[in-house]
Amino acid sequence: MTRRIIMLALGCIGIAAATVLLLRPAVREAPAAIAVPRVAVALGRIEPLGDTITLAGPQGNRSGRIAQLLVEQGQQVTAGQALAVMDNAAALTGQFEQARASARQRQARIAQRVVEMEAEEAALGAALVQERATRDRARWELERTQRLERGGVLREAALIDRRLALDVAEQKVASAELSLARAQRRDVDGRRLEEAVLIAEREMATATLAQMEQEAALATLRAPAAGRVLRINTRPGEVPGSDGVLLMGDTSRMRVRAEVFESDVPMVSPGQRVRITSRALPEPLHGEVAWIGLRVGRQTILREDPAATLDARVVEVMIGLDAASSARVAGLSGLQVRAHFGARLPLGWIQLAHQPGRFAMALSGVAAAVTLVFMQLGFMNMIFDTTVMVHRLLRADLVLVSPAFRDVTSSGTIPRRRVVQALGVDGVADAEALYTATRDWVKPDGERGTLLLLGVRPDFAAFSDPAISAQQSLLTQPGSILLDAGARGDYRAVLAGLARGEDWRTEMGARAVTVVGRFRLGSSFGNEGVLITSDDTLQALAMNRAAAAPNIGLIRLAPGADLRRVQAAIAASLDPADARVLTHAEFVQHTRGFMVRNSPIAIVFGFGLVVGLVVGAMVVTQILTADVQEHMAEYATFKAMGFSNRRILAIVYEQSMLLAALGFPIGLACALGIYELIRAAVAMPITMPFARVAMVFAATFIMCALAGTLATRRARRVDPADVF
Amino acid sequence: MSAAIIARGLTHGYGEGPVLRALELDVAAGEVLFLMGPSGCGKTTLLTLIGALRSVQEGQLHVLGHALHGVDDAARVASRRRTGFVFQHHNLHRSLTALQNVMVGLEARGLSRSTDATEMCRAALAAVGLAGLDARRQDKLSGGQRQRVAIARALVGGPQLLLADEPTGALDSATGREVMAAMRGLARAQGTTVVIVTHDPRLHEPGDRVIAMEDGQIRSMERELAP
Ligand SMILES: Nc1ncnc2c1ncn2[C@@H]1O[C@H](COP(=O)(O)OP(=O)(O)OP(=O)(O)O)[C@@H](O)[C@H]1O
Ligand SMILES: [Mg+2]
């Protein structure tokens, strides 16, 4: 074991040293290798730099045919300019006019009716006054007639006539009062009732008018933004289809969308100069690589040559055309072109390789950060894994645990009758109770150690390790125990004795125990190791334990039984207050998840991980910044010669990506070596899952990209006038 | 013959008073022009303006038919790509071989397009008398050789204008003459307009135009006559 670790450690150092040493010859050989730059040529299409807009026809049941197009293909238009008129424009305008007339008419009617109603009200008032006068007159006549009658002047018949006349007059007054009151009735807004009705009608007419106006406006298509009409898709007389009436876009700046063969991508980088040619262009265009797509796809632009490969894999590369070139092809959106990517020197690589000392330092910075991150992740997962080591040792399809269950050392108890109950459920083949307790014992060296004691009926195969199952029959003897050979402490003499067939006697509490066999599990942070015994022995050793209150119920299903269905059936028979039923996977995840959520472990290691990445980023930033600083004169010269800012920055990014790509494997190798050392030293499981490798690989690139970005701050300020 | 450089009322300063004062200059295409004058009179400043390394502050400047006053950074970069520069110091990249240094010049111009790019660069090195030294880095080249690499870098790809600021200033006179001859040879072959700042009148040849600058203005202009 020790020899293997030393070999591995030496291997790591060897890889690191070889990487550094290999760089020296690379410096010498590089010129020959890159003196003949290959070039990439790709097919592409010209398109506007800004987004293109597909102008759809009006939607809904009022859509119609195009009556008239007001623009031509290639024409420049301003925002809001009318582009096309639909054939229902005239009808809609007519309807709009009609609606407007109707709204006006309603308004006039209100005015008219108000005047009329005011007049009516006045007339009713006058009538009332008239009727009251008539009544007063009739009353006076009656009184006079009564006086005369008392004087015997008139006969009774005249008196009756007068009384009748007064009655009639009073009825007329009441009727006139009623009419006036009706006319004067007002709603809550103080308006006459009829006036309110008329106003509501007018409002409806106004709403209709607004809607008609909108619809009439929609019959004229307008440009949503300034731009050029790139393609007309619908001609007069046609109904706009799914590709809209026309396609427009901002053509003040054009670009080329090129499809570069996957194998040629390494020859393309942002800021690189590109020459664009086409049979349709008398002179080539010029541009610069703006960005390189991340996705690899199938070729969509095909060569004229029918024999050319059709299913080549390509990466999309966007090339921004310079102002002069853009102006020349503003009207040629969609034109197929060839993009010639100029050969470029791998300046970042050359600069790094020319300074092996600095390169090695940067690489070790990245490698150290990678190693540190792997260590943190390894330790963290190791701790989480050790908490479920015993879970994994238990052989069960379903597990009964107490609602208070956290892990095997802090599990709470369940009523034993629940385990017995489970036996009665359809699909359950076997079920048994497991007892757990942590107990101290005296180790061979005389020191005390805390171990986890697992007790189960010896004739129940409760463990996934066949070595344990084979020895379980030995546990029928009271006081006998199986020892974890991976337990912390020096048990070599004991284990050697066991191998010779000699038992080891020691004591636990005040009781004598005998180690009769062994298995291998390993220690965890919670306990030094695991002991396996019978349920009876455990109850005897842990004095306060009752047979009726085990800690875990182990349930095994009959062949072919449905796990979920049986789980549901058992759950239905349980009282959720005293037991829960989990699948074995849930049982493991329960404890692991509990630890991840409730222990500071994830935070502590997460912090260490961030520190690792930050330190790595700082080292790389420092070294790249020093490199930029040293090459300021060269960069100023490059800029004076016509390099764009972007091309200068690409040198720095090229360096940071190289450091990531080369530093990562070194860090990974170191981490693997350290994992191996830990496995040997502390007898705990530490593994390197692929997902972790992938994640750290990505983090390394992000770290280096960040460092590159920080280092370019200086490079951005290079002034080409400084060269003199 | 069309004009390569037209300057009208070109005024430029660095804060305390103008260095160039309403300077007027016309240079015809294909001409070789010597710019002479006392130290600090603004020769380098004028060169950086013509080379689009600085933005024009005042006045008008047309170089190779493109205006350089009131233009953006992109237009200046484009102008630099049409121009070759040779400096007093070679300014070669120390990590690159002679050939790679020349290739950088070609890449900047956006003209390297196939394996013949390498041939172009080799030919440029051969034209300045450095055939066979392609793979040397600057630390293995003499001062005159370095300056000749710089000339090859400036002229590869055929720029229409070459600006040189005391290209022989750091060399002894014999080497200076060699370097000058290399520059003239390559420039003449490509029909390049050349503007050279120098203090050494022995570098002039018949037919060259010599301009004397003083206090940010052009004092005199004369044509070198046959001896
Ligand atoms: N970047 C700058 N910032 C401030 N002042 C400057 C700068 N560059 C030049 N100057 C000043 O402008 C004046 C002209 O400088 P310039 O370099 O153009 O002169 P020159 O004619 O090239 O001189 P020399 O023959 O010594 O090279 C000088 O006084 C100089 O101090
Ligand atoms: Mg100067």
CATH class of chain B: Alpha Beta
Largest sheet of chain B: 6 strands, mixed
Spatial gap, N to C terminus of chain A: 65 Å
Per the CATH scheme, the topology name of chain B is: Rossmann fold
- Based on CA inertia axes, which overall geometry of chain B fits? globular
In this structure, how is the largest beta sheet of chain A organized?
A: 9 strands, mixed
Overall SS class of chain B: alpha/beta
Low-pLDDT stretches of chain A are: 23-37
Query: CATH-wise, what's the superfamily of chain B?
Result: P-loop containing nucleotide triphosphate hydrolases
Q: What does the average pLDDT of chain B come to?
A: 87
Short description:
The complex is a heterodimer of chains A (724) and B (227). By secondary structure, chain A is of the alpha+beta class.
Characterization of the model:
The complex is a heterodimer of chains A (724) and B (227). Chain A is 50% helix and 19% strand. Chain A folds into four domains: 1-26 and 345-393 and 595-724, no CATH class; 36-86 and 219-344, Efflux pump adaptor protein, beta barrel domain (Elongation Factor Tu (Ef-tu), domain 3, Beta Barrel), CATH 2.40.30; 91-215; 403-578, no CATH class. Residues 23-37 of chain A have low confidence and may be disordered. Chain A has helices at residues 2-34, 89-150, 156-184, 193-218, 323-328, 347-353, 356-386, 389-393, 416-423, 466-471, 492-499, 535-541, 563-573, 584-598, 601-630, 632-641, 645-682, 690-716; strands spanning 40-48, 52-55, 66-69, 76-77, 82-86, 220-222, 227-232, 246-249, 254-261, 273-277, 285-298, 313-321, 336-341, 398-401, 428-442, 448-456, 480-484, 504-508, 511-519, 530-533, 552-557, 580-583. Chain A has 724 residues and is of the alpha+beta class. With 227 residues, chain B is α/β, with parallel strands linked by helices. Classes of the chains: A alpha+beta (724), B alpha/beta (227). Chains A and B meet through helix 1, strand 10, helix 6 and helix 16 of A and helix 1, helix 2, strand 6 and helix 3 of B.
